[in-house]
Queue: 2 jobs
Job 1
Amino acid sequence: MSYAIEISHFSYSRTGNDVMVTFSTSPADRYVRSDVVVSRLIAGETLVVPVRGGLGDLASIYTFNPAGTTIWAALDRPKDLDELTRLLEQEYEVSGSDARADVLLFLNEMRAAGLVAVLGGDGNETAAPETSQNRVGG
């Protein structure tokens, strides 16, 4: 089985530069799908549409390949970084460091898009503190 995290973001109303945002993580953090998205599995890929104002935001559609789909499926219930890392290690037989790096990439992108929520050690959703921003694209 091939392994590589691929996330495609189709945005039909782009203006300005893309911004990559990274967030700090805590070992107590647990991640879960946001409740403001609709997702469907089609031909082994997951399509995710954010819901804004009660309607699907068809101007922003995300697709995940099988590795991204594996993480997304696991996020139907809160999971911590270690659980998600072990899942990729077992499913795709990759090193722990590669799996962790890919999970962090996935979580950062999904948090920045508002598709994944973070639950602190107390089980309540936490604000996502920014630690850095890097301009990507032009």
Job 2
Amino acid sequence: MHFEKLNLFDSYGYAICCIDISSDIQSALLINAMERAVEQFVVLSDIAQCMLTSKCRHLVSYVCKTASFWYRILQEKLCR
């Protein structure tokens, strides 16, 4: 029981980190700091991978969709 609660709190923590990282990616793109944006995206991708086993399906979906969103944006910017 306690382990499940710990996993739930981990999932919430990852989701909050996702919001912060997303903001960092956006800030990096605004100042054209592509290396920083890509570094933050890698962290976001790692979080998405960690979340795949969580029972919090809505949080998993949110984190994966956020990673996918930034993937498309970065791909577009880097392919120019």
